[in-house]
Amino acid sequence: MSGGVYGGDEVGAIIFDIGHQSLRVGYGGEDAPKAEIPTSLGVWEDPNDSIDSSQQTVKKQYNIDVTAIQFRKEDMEIVSLMKDGMIDDWDMFERLAEYTYKQRLHALPEHHPILLTECPWNTRLKRERLLEMMFEKFNVPAMYICKNAVLAAYANGRSTAMVVDSGATHTSAVPVHDGYVITQGIVKSPLAGDFITMQCRQFLEEKDIELVPACLVASKDVVREREPPRWIRRSGPEPTSSWLTYMVRELLQDYQMNCLQISDGPYDEDTAAALPTKRYEFPTGYNDEFGSIRLMIPEALFDPSNVKGVGASILGVGPLVTTSVGMCDMDIRPSLYGSVVVTGGNSCLQGFSDRLNRDLASKTPPSMRLKIISANSSSERRYGAWIGGSILSSLGSFQQMWLSRQEYEESGKMILDRCA
């Protein structure tokens, strides 16, 4: 290391891709993350007797990762450390990072530079806090913070692209030009994975289907289609409502990924009824065939006009892209339409890219060539930003971009200006 610049040695960089649903983490240069850990943690209070027995100090305890969260505790609440795509609870994030290094990566933070992703609307204050935590608390040798939309574009071999990211809490259209986000062109909508999960829950509850997570079922009998389930509840402490909501959401997400499909064109009852049905069995043993509803629920992503309670101001995925392109300079519009990159966990819904292609084809000016870039495998779409970070951190030309500990000690938070 010379002149305060981190040279990047043989030790691989660690990539932290922080999303609302989960934290994807692994080593730079690899094809996929080593671990995916939920960003919702189990939190409960443990009263510790202090030296003076009359005083009781209450210490917060955390359950981290899938298995620990599923463990039923009477007073354990499930809390998310994220809000609007940004880190909201720093104490929880610190615990999650400690757990990740020790239990999942078995690595020492001081040995590896770290590349962190952030949403394009992250605030300066939160970036500074992240920089401070990584250098002061974890003693990393070097770090870099990069916008997840830019990394998703890199993962698909583009430095200029229109990145359509549909995740858990929102779907966003982010224009990227030469590796920089065009901030005034960002458009986002709250219609995303969690919204579809809510629609699924409404529909299933209307049909009187009992939503019980698998970990509460001790045993069940095989029943015929649509017959009432026969099952026995597992004994144990009564869980909190936030824990139950979280576990039911997991079940609904499984139903979502297995059953739902996005139709090629605007939803049509007759076309939907002609498609083959899909059977799904719930943890209680209740099973049914699902037909047109498979296409009706996710239709809201592309055409929110028929959904109750959704205002006219909320845009479907197609208009989201055209609005975003319209906010950018005339001269870069053709290159944005020429590489529309689809990424995010919610984009793994069957038919997402085909429908987007069809919706945009009818709205794209005839002088411009439209090209939708969507990775074939769902894991590549889901881990788009992480894969981009993995590629970027292993490039020789990137090694001089790291913000080193020496620079941080000399200049403080000013060095953040180098992170585009």
TrEMBL record:
CDD domains: ASKHA_NBD_Arp4_ACTL6-like (cd13395). Transmembrane segments: none annotated. Coiled coil: none annotated. InterPro entries: Actin, ATPase_NBD. SUPFAM superfamilies: Actin-like ATPase domain. Signal peptide: none annotated. Belongs to the actin family. This is Actin-like protein 6B. The gene is LOC107269992.
